Amino acid sequence: MENYTMEGRTYRYYGQEAPLYPFGYGLSYTTFRYRDLVLSPSVLPVCANLSVSVVLENTGLRDSEEVVQLYLRWEQSSVPVPRWQLVAFRRVAVLAGQEAKLVFQVLAEQRAVWAQDWRLEPGTFTLFAGGQQPGQKTRAPSEVLSAQFSVTGTARPLRGC
Question: Residue 106: enclosing H or E segment and its boundaries?
Fold first, then answer.
């Protein structure tokens, strides 16, 4: 195999074509609402980590679990990258009518791109938080929140951080 780009070979690189059963697809016995997505800091140096918090509320009548998923999208990159990439997830049990505040760390290495070696690049990124992939169409509705953050500095090899 000589072509390692994975373009057209895995759902992460299909372009606009969505997979039949994306990660997180399924039904729930209750409903959830996401709110208060906070990225800190919203502008960070190229080697820094990002802190993310989101509130998950069980708005249904049953106790249930939700798999909270965080996806990252590069708004501009010097090399081809996935449409979005799963960077964190957590299964959370929430009682009916209750809420939980979740805190995640998105590491700098999760923003690295492959350009003959792993590199970190400055630019604008979008982070998605929800119970499914961004833009997913399911029978059970689940919100996906999004927020942008910026990375400043000059591109550098990941091992240089």
Answer: strand 99-106
Structural domains in the chain (count): 1
Residue 121 lies in a domain: yes
**Rounded distance, CA 82 to CA 73, Å?**
8
Tell me if 102 sits within 8 A of 57, measured CB to CB: no
Q: How far is it, in rounded angstroms, from Cα 75 to Cα 81?
A: 10
Contact 99, 63 (CB under 8 A): no
Residues in Cβ contact with 36 at an 8 Å cutoff, skipping those fewer than 6 apart: 53, 54, 55, 101
Q: Is residue 137 part of a domain?
A: yes
How is residue 130 written in tokens?
């929800």
Task: Print the domain residue range for 79.
Answer: 32-160
Q: What is the pLDDT, as a whole number, of residue 145?
A: 95
Residue 6 lies inside a defined structural domain of this protein: no
Which residues does the chain have with pLDDT short of 50? none
pLDDT at 27: 65
Q: What are phi and psi of 108, to 5 degrees?
A: -55, -40
pLDDT digits (tens, 9 = 90+) for 114-161: 988 999 999 999 999 998 888 776 555 568 999 999 999 999 999 999
The CATH number of whichever domain residue 93 belongs to comes to 2.60.40.10
